[in-house]
Amino acid sequence: MSSPADRARVAIAGNPNAGKTSLFNRLTGAIQQVSNYPGVTVERKEGTARLDGRAFTVVDLPGTYSLTAYSQEEIVARNFVIDDKPEAVIDVVDASNLERNLYLTIQLLELGAPLVLALNMIDVARKRGFQIDIGRMAALLGVPVVATVAHRGEGVRELLEACAACVDRTGDGRPRPISYGPEIDAQIDDLAASVRRAGAHADPAAARWAAIKLIEGDPEVRARLGAAGGAVVAPILEAVDRSIQAIEKRFDDDAATVIAERRYGIAAGIVKECVTLTGQARQDMTDQIDTIVCNRAAGPLILVAVVAALFFCVFKVSDEWAWIPWPGGWLSPTGLMEWLFEALSGAVAGLRASAPMLHSLIDDAVIGGVGGVMSFVPLILTMFLFVAVLEDSGYIARVAFLLDRVLRAFGLQGKSILALIVAGGLGGGGCAVPGVMATRTLREEKDRLITMLVTPFMNCGAKMPVYAMLIAAFFPDHRTAMMLLLWAISWSVTLMAALALRKWILRGEQTPFVMELPPYHVPTLRGVALHAWERTWMYMKKAGTIILAVNILLWALMYFPAPDRAQHEARVAAGQSEASLETMRLSHSFAGRIGQALEPVSQYAGFDWRTNVALVGGFAAKEIVIGVLGTVYSMGEVSAEESQSLSGRLAADPQWSRLRALTLMIFVMLYAPCFVTMTVIRRESGSWKWALFSTAYSTTIAFALAVCVYQAGRALGWG
Amino acid sequence: MKTLFDLTTGQSARIKRIRGQGANGIRQRLLDMGVTKGTPVFVERHAPLGDPVEVAIKGYHLAVRMSEARNIEVESEN
User: Fold this and answer.
1) B21-68 pLDDT, tens per residue?
2) Cα–Cα distance measured from residue A414 to residue A426, given in angstroms and rounded to the nearest whole number
3) Which stretches of chain B are assigned E, i.e. beta strand?
4) Checking phi first, is residue A626 left (phi over 0); if not, alpha (psi -120 to 50) or beta?
């Protein structure tokens, strides 16, 4: 058995939608490690493939069309091949779309990668009438070529055997050097020689690659050379400029265009020599589906139906429908989670009398905290299952196509819609956590950040109990109208905030929208399940640890310092109710003091110290607002379900008014995303900076709007 | 000069050149996606509000915004 350290490494490269993920899953089975490449948010998957007792470490490189410095993915992919020097690189090529896929193959050959070509989806290519001469292709490229149907596992063993031969250098392939024609080759050779002399790239293949990239004007390679070289760099850069000028003069076009066109020329040449069209290529399924799905009239209607179905299924299946048989009745998956944590809570109830502080810590902070996170898991898993189906089938690209124009007006783009809908965009009941995670389908960094930052403004399920309680208390005759109003406010703020972020914070021209509309595929159960599970697991692992810590902190803020013991006992002796003792204790705690300290500011929005404590608690999760309000309004423990009595109490309280209730709802809707969302924003954006920014800017917007509404309402005499 | 922007659904043409200077960013991206000189394009459809546009090129389907299409010069087939 070899240890992981000295195993041969096989990297998988290829175009998006060429079947890389299916191949990776087939090679490695269910056990994969998911992490991010250092310093960037590009997901890195690693697993182990076995061939006759021999183990290989398989690394899934990001799917790319090219290897320029255009995106993080492309830089990550090429740097892995250059710096980590995997012993074999599988290039997954879509056999039914050869020309464009070979464009990447040619660049991998330029890199000097030890290449094995997987001619994937060969069945689709054959069905479309393409006959591919595999032997001829292998000879032309000088690398082994294996026909595969990755999602069915066909050809996967042969592919791994070819990789093993590549690792052992027993294969007979000699990668064909890529020629760009005599004039350009001469320029490349000269430059490569100077690059080698400068010591920036010792390996001849790497030096040649660097020379090509320098001629293409690649900023990253240029910077790398600058960092490595010192005094010798300036003459090289001068030589680069001379080469570029010579090429541009000769071909009357810029050098990068000339090189890209040459690559496509080579790809077209290979296709011409290896592919014959047998019979009539049929109009395929994708074209037929798209005639309907992307139709100007039917397209938007189908989109609405799909989104409604997703929304319906996700929340019904995971939360509302009790379909799991359980002793004592049927439970929903979320209900099951709650049942588990209630059972745990019951198990430690014995501590309440003997060790009240320990009991409070375990019950409120640990079980309550972890339980809060885990109760989201069924929702997130179901959401990811559906999103994985939409992604793997190719529909997401159509959604982006249909909606891009509308959302672009607000600084978002087509694919942003998915995140917003998952977060509650249809009118409530969503969740920002899977919403923020759904922004992964956006490849453009700025668009992705903006979407991530506005997603928490949607009306998620956690805000619903707060709305329900306040509407019941103050607007009992206008429930529907109020919900519509809240829905409209949340969308207006979302779109306006996106516009403002694009204008002032994440400035710059919008990322160009150049997107492939891939052929539709029937997603495989295995692929979808793996996809959904690995994302869910990442959420459980990371959010679980951070959330636990935050809950312990919040608990301590509300528990300490304890009121003076003698006074406390005097009050107990005086027969004060437990609830009023609880209020005393809270006002004495750090959280209570924070609430009082905030009052001079918060009064402009009409919030007193007790509301402030509730809102501070709501930073952890918005449902907490109801629980804390219940506590501070002398009700003892109030859970979201028992909020009726609290609403009655508030309605009767002379300090409360309709205006105050409306202001509070608006504030709760918009202020800081809950801690789970924050940690997810931190992970998805790659830095705490954006998580903290998100908290600060949304709280600012919330407060500004709350003050406006409250003061305007007062001026109009509603207060 | 005619661009991809000017073509209506169902029309085909050949790519002539991509306007603009420099090779990085959008220009490089379009080149990488196969929008190279002499390549035939066929306009499959426009999105509901007329933007973006979907074209068939090099055997696959590509969507670009009209703002990008304006910079892709084409010449009529034949």
Assistant:
1) 654 578 888 999 999 999 999 999 999 999 899 999 998 999 999 988
2) 17
3) 12-18, 40-46, 53-57, 60-64, 72-76
4) alpha
Residue at A621: amino acid letter: A
Instruction: Identify the contact set of chain A against chain B, taking CB-CB distances under 8 A.
Output: 65-66, 68-70, 96-100, 103, 216-217, 219, 253-257, 260-261, 264, 286, 290, 294-297, 299-300, 397, 400-402, 404-406, 408, 512-518
Task: Give the bridge partners for A120, in sequence order.
Answer: A94
Burial of A270 (0-12, 13-18, 19+ CB in 10 A): buried
Q: Max alpha carbon distance in chain B (Å)?
A: 33
Reported ipTM: 0.95
Name the region of B58 (left: φ>0; alpha: ψ -120 to 50; beta: rest). Answer: left
pTM for the complete prediction?
A: 0.81
Joined together, the tokens standing for residue A695 give 């908290």
User: Could you identify the residue written with the tokens 């850069």?
Assistant: A237
For residue A152, report the phi and psi dihedrals to the nearest 5 degrees: -100, 0
Instruction: List pLDDT tens digits, range A405-433.
Output: 999 899 888 888 878 877 877 665 678 88
If DSSP codes are grouped into helix, strand and coil, which group holds residue A149?
strand
Q: Which helix (H) or strand (E) holds A93?
A: strand A88-94
For testing the chain A interface, which of B35, B36, B62 should be mutated: the one with the most A CBs within 10 Å? B36
Angstrom distance (rounded) from CA A531 to CA A60? 14
Dump pLDDT digits (tens) for A109-147.
999 889 999 999 999 899 888 999 999 999 999 999 999
Going A230 to A236 to A240 to A242, the CA torsion angle's sign is positive
Give the separation between CA A557 and CA A568, rounded to whole angstroms. Answer: 19
CA distances from A139 to A13, A164, A176, A283, A325 (A): 21, 19, 9, 31, 60
Q: Which residues of A587-624 are buried (b: 16+ CB within 10 A; e: fewer)?
A: bbbebbbbbeebeeebeebbbbbbbbbbbbbbbbbbbb
* pLDDT tens profile A292-337: 999 989 999 998 888 778 767 776 787 778 888 888 888 888 888 8
Q: Taking CA atoms, what residue in B is nearest to A253?
A: B17
* pLDDT of res. A534: 77
Which of A97, A300, A514 has its CB closest to that of B64?
A: A514
Long-range contacts at A711-714 (CB < 8 A, ≥ 24 apart): A711/A604, A713/A659, A713/A662, A713/A663, A714/A659
Between these two residues, A711 and A172, which has the higher pLDDT value? A711
- Do residues B20 and B26 make contact, with C-beta atoms less than 8 angstroms apart? yes
Contacts for A94 with CB less than 8 Å, ≥ 6 apart: A15, A17, A18, A19, A101, A120, A121
Domains belonging to chain B, first-starting first, are 4-76 (2.30.30.90)
List pLDDT tens digits, range A52-95.
989 999 999 999 999 988 777 888 999 999 889 999 999 999 99
How far apart (Å, rounded) are the C-alpha atoms in residues B60 and A96?
9
Strands A54-60 and B12-18: unpaired
